[in-house]
Design a protein that fits this description.
By secondary structure, this protein is mostly beta strands. The protein contains 13 helices and 36 strands. About 15% of the residues lie in helices and about 40% in strands.
Length: about 650
């Protein structure tokens, strides 16, 4: 991406292009901030070559520069925080502005007017702050540390605060995309970008990967419109998050948040169905500590957070086979697959909703199939199900056993039974078929509630006046012994799920001169999700009935293993020349995915529980390799993905300050 804000001195533009090509890199994220301003005398005339020192009040780390011929200064690559700015030159009193708070990705301004006098004399301005950003024409929203700590967040997910930005709309339960459940300015959710300490925190399919615990978040900026060219790879909002660093003082805290069903009332629908209160055990605990390793030189910040969750997904109404029907299948057809599964994986109990038949002859069989004769007579079954009477004989035999049709009655097929036989004979075969109830199944992942551990460590080191390095590693591991939420869990089918989301950020900032600064960054992000099928359930395929009973087995797309690795290398050069602030650089990303989406396990679909009892599926699905390419016989196959690609971006941006007001 190539962006030029204004057309300035051609020599300056040529210099920026040369530096850009030399770096061979591209558009990067700017997680730091800057301070700029002018130095003038009492008459308002600019003072060139005045010494300006910008000092972080928390770490006492200083950065020095001088004003240019226009009396302007600018200090880049500052960690967000509170700073003081000191200006001094011969013949004038030293002036200091204290308490200048700058935030991530923004440019603070501090104009200093020097009074005539000796350099040893000092003028101090306390609590100086500019409430309006006069340096950039970009729309963004800052979520500060006080908001992060004090606003109530379910599960303490800081990305929920993106919804506070102007133009942001909450689309939770409306859209199914990755992107923090928010649409900004109408752009699709998965077009949102996420940056953490200057490196990518966005998965290859969109959305954030690492969810940092809020106690390590210094602040974050939500860029919504007319954003800088350094954020060149996302069409939606770009969330630029910065973690906390240590200071010259030791600081830390410990915490625990508890939620428990003992404090809750029973859900309305669960209460209506006579079910038990949904379990909820949520404990989130941890602590952070930060401070100096070498005062004024090296600092650390570390954290740990544990999440322990056991709860139920939202209850949903479901249908299952009745216990009477289940027992009838086990007793009448003991060698059938249905009997084996009903015995080992019974469905939930509930209120009877339909019958196989009733004395009045208006039961399920009579309504759907036109009477017993359709099922137990091979000739009649042919008209409904297809096939010849000979082919249908084993199926009808199963129905005869299930319904208790005698050999003498079967001999009257198709006329006698099709005619209904006698009312007494039909009444004797009345059998509850389905029950209705409310599904309650466990989960350890519900919205922002997770189960797992996360820890982080950050080191900031100031090598000297012109060099600063930092490194930060965040590790997050989650697990859910239940797996994806679905009513099949009610039968005991679970698909344990684990996730690992490490995030590494490295940075080296070097000042070549008061007017030229370089930022080199590297990062690594892993997005790993594994959904497995327990060994004891691996032999049970996915089985579904058209009448909606709770299914058997796990989704036939399991197991699934998604492993994304994103490597980021970036560099940016900042040049101050007169009224120009030029940035140029690039970003190089290596994206690697090694995943398996397994569809080799078959799935079976039945008209209803009756045909399931008769071992007669309507459709069978499975992943198959036809062998066209390999030349081998057709076989069950899975889907393995091994994707590789490079992303390269370059940019040049020139912001020109035409005047103090423009």
């Amino acid at each position: 991406m190539f962006t030029s804000r204004t057309c300035g001195d051609p020599r300056v533009l040529l210099l920026t292009i040369v530096l850009m090509l030399a770096s061979c890199l591209s558009a990067i994220a700017q997680e730091t901030a800057a301070i700029t301003g002018s130095v003038t005398d009492p008459t308002g005339a600019v003072i060139p070559n005045a010494s300006v020192t910008v000092t972080n009040e928390g770490t006492n780390v200083s950065h020095s520069t001088v004003t240019n011929s226009s009396g302007l200064y600018r200090v880049e690559a500052l960690i967000p925080g509170v700073y003081s700015v000191k200006a001094e030159t011969k013949g004038f009193k030293t002036t200091v502005h204290q308490g200048i708070e700058i935030t991530v990705g923004t440019v603070g301004r501090a104009d200093l007017r020097l009074e005539l006098g000796q350099e040893t004399q000092r003028v101090t301005v306390e609590a100086f702050a500019s409430m309006v950003n006069t340096e950039e024409g970009r729309l963004s929203d800052i979520v500060g540390g006080a908001q992060v700590v004090n606003l109530p967040l379910n599960g303490r997910n800081v990305f929920d605060l993106i919804k506070l930005a102007p133009g942001a709309v909450n689309v939770d339960s409306v859209m199914i995309e990755f992107g923090a459940n928010v649409v900004v300015n109408g752009v699709r959710e998965n077009f949102n970008g996420f940056i953490m300490d200057g490196v990518a925190n966005k998965g290859l399919s969109g959305g954030f990967v690492t969810q940092p615990n809020e106690d390590i978040v210094q602040e974050f900026q939500v860029n919504t419109l007319n954003m800088s060219a350094v954020y060149g790879n996302s069409a939606g909002a770009v969330t630029n998050l910065v973690t906390k660093s240590g200071t010259n003082q030791f600081h830390g805290d410990v915490y625990e948040f508890v939620r428990n069903d003992k404090f809750d009332a029973t859900d309305f629908f669960t209460n209506e169905s006579g079910g038990k209160k949904n379990p909820l055990r949520f404990n989130q605990f941890g602590g952070v500590i930060g401070g100096p390793i070498r005062k004024d030189k090296t600092f650390f910040f570390a954290s740990f957070q544990g999440d322990r969750t056991i709860t139920s997904a939202a209850p949903v109404p479901v249908t299952s086979e009745s216990a009477d029907f289940r027992n009838a299948v086990i007793n009448a057809l003991p060698n059938s697959t249905a009997a084996l599964l009903y015995k080992n994986f019974p469905g939930p109990t509930g209120a009877v909703s339909s019958y196989v038949s009733t004395p009045a002859g208006t039961g399920y069989v009579d309504t759907v199939y036109g009477g017993f004769g359709t099922l137990v007579c091979p000739d009649n079954l042919a008209g409904f199900y297809g096939g010849t009477p000979t082919q249908n004989a084993p199926i009808s035999s199963s129905f005869q056993s299930l319904f208790g049709v005698t050999a003498a009655e079967a001999a009257g097929c198709p006329t006698a039974i099709a005619a209904g036989q006698t009312t007494t004979q039909i009444a004797n075969r009345a059998l509850p078929l389905q029950v209705s109830t409310v599904a309650q199944f466990g989960t350890q992942t519900s919205g922002n509630l997770l189960n797992g551990n996360a820890w982080s460590a950050r080191i900031d080191h100031n090598i000297g006046q012109n060099d600063r390095i930092f490194g930060r590693f965040y590790s997050q591991h989650t697990s859910d012994k239940f797996g994806p939420n679905n009513p099949d869990n009610m039968r005991g089918f679970k698909n344990s799920t684990t996730g690992d989301y490490p995030n590494l950020s490295l940075s080296w900032t070097h000042i070549f001169s008061p007017a030229v600064l370089n930022e080199l960054k590297g990062g690594y992000l892993r997005n790993e999700t594994n959904v497995g099928v327990p060994p004891g359930q691996a032999g049970v395929p996915f089985i579904s009935m058209g009448t909606g009973e709770v299914a058997f087995g796990a989704y036939n797309g399991y197991p699934q293993f998604f492993h994304e690795n994103i490597y980021t290398y970036s560099d940016m050069v900042s040049i101050n020349h007169g009224k120009h602030n030029i940035k140029t650089g690039g970003d190089l990303r290596r994206n690697i995915e090694n995943s398996e989406f397994n569809v080799a396990r078959p799935s079976y679909y039945f008209f209803d529980s009756l045909f399931f009892a008769a071992d007669t599926p309507a459709v069978q699905d499975a992943g198959v390799d036809p062998g066209i390419i390999s030349g081998k016989p057709a076989q069950l196959a899975t889907n393995n993905r091994s994707w590789r690609n490079w992303e390269i971006g370059l940019f040049v941006q020139d912001d020109r300050k035409v005047s103090h007001k423009l």
